[in-house]
Amino acid sequence: MQRSIAGGLFVALLFLVAAWLGCSKVYIGSRERFIYVLHLSSEHYMNIKENSPFTPGSPVPVELFVGRSKQIKEILRYVEQTKYGKQENVFLSGERGIGKSSLETFLCHMAVTKMDVIGIHVFLGGVSSLEEAVRRILDQLLKETRGQEWFEDIKQFFGKYIREVGLFGVSVSFVPPEQDLRELVRSFSEVLDNLLQKIDGKKAGLFIALDDINGLADKEEFANWYKSFVDEVATHYENFPVFIMLTGLPEKRDALATHQPSLMRIFRVTEIEKLSDEEIEDFLSAAFEKANIKVEPDAMDLMVTYSSGLPILMHEIGDATFWVDDDGVIDEDDAITGVLAAAEEVGKKYLDPKVYRAIRSKNYRSILKKLGEGEISREFIKKDVEARLNESEKKVFHNFLRRMKDLGVIESDLERGKGAYRFVNEIYPIYIWMKSEGLKPRRKKA
Ligand SMILES: Nc1ncnc2c1ncn2[C@@H]1O[C@H](COP(=O)(O)OP(=O)(O)OP(=O)(O)O)[C@@H](O)[C@H]1O
Ligand SMILES: [Mg+2]
User: Fold this and answer.
1) Who is most buried in 67, 317, 371, 393, counting CB within 10 A?
2) Cα 338 to ligand 1 centre (Å)
3) Domain with residues 68-271, CATH architecture
4) Whose CA is nearest to atom 16 of ligand 1?
5) CA-CA distance, 244 to 82, in Å (whole number)?
6) Residue 17: is its pLDDT beyond 50?
7) Nearest ligand 1 atom to alpha carbon 315
8) pLDDT tens digits for 49-77?
9) Interior/surface letters 54-63, b for 16+ CB within 10 angstroms, e for the rest
10) Whole-prediction pTM value?
């Protein structure tokens, strides 16, 4: 009770200060505005709602996919080329959470619906053996073709290794014994050629997306196997309409190139980076429209700014704001509350494990706290922060900054010169600020 009176007085005080300054609202994005909204928004988080259109953490549904038009055009051109018999290989590289899997899902959908090929999207996250990779590819091909009316014609291709799983055999799995799997790895080009012959006249080719090859890319064995597969196809088969796309982090592309230098001649490398602010806005508009929610222009600007071009953040912010809204209209206060809640979510997922729980040094911890105090800003100058540190903190500050860089929390701000740094996105400084000031957004999903 006492707390809420104190909170009320605090908000009233902020209003008085704001009025005194001659403005009706405290400046957006300033720490005062954030604190004001934090206190204001203590009740409205019990909203009863249907499902959120946002999907933080999983590939976006095709109807809400935005951007990447250049890459889509380019890659679909290669897919088109494979239909005339020439095998193609693409390596899609991008940082974590930038949208690789979403782009693969989208491309697979386009290839299947517009190009009449069989398309599979195989998740190889955590896979580090060739046998398991090949088993998953064939397993996915089995699942994909089972629904087709001509499945009976090609069923024998999978031999006797189809296992019906689930109640009444609703699903199937491809489970050959280890020894046969090794043979399938060795003769992979022949295996695919067999399948191509079986689908001849029914489908124009195969689209195979191998997602998250991070575990395999570190293996020399994988690089050599892939190179031999591509060479065999080129020398033995005239017509091999198979498009293969691998995705991984940029450093995994480099690892593959180190293991097998000729491999990089085989791949057409495509990179994806941040989305533009317009694309972020297109996405947020479409997603909120889908949920029948209106967004006021100021609120939209705010959500776009804090998304910092990162698809993962636009989903977190959109999702948090979706649950905050209680009247079908997102105004500025809703958006700020959403941004704060998203910062809490993102901070817990990314900063807590690698920074807050990982850092043991007392000095590092106190520097981090001081970094978060005061005005919230994505950018900072080394000597400005240094001025607020004590002697023992100053001694380790340089190493602290290096560690934060290695952890992907900050980066050098080359445009602003030496000693200028910035957080890698707009959300991290908000979380660090909330931690330093001991603040917590109050959000509850219905
Ligand atoms: N083009 C897009 N349009 C709309 N949302 C997107 C787009 N790309 C990615 N997203 C969203 O961004 C988040 C991260 O996307 P995704 O999982 O595809 O990234 P990723 O690069 O595969 O990540 P990881 O490296 O973790 O595998 C997800 O919430 C996804 O829904
Ligand atoms: Mg992915």
Assistant:
1) 317
2) 20
3) 3-Layer(aba) Sandwich (3.40)
4) 99
5) 10
6) no
7) 29
8) 778 999 998 999 999 999 999 999 999 99
9) bebeebbeee
10) 0.85
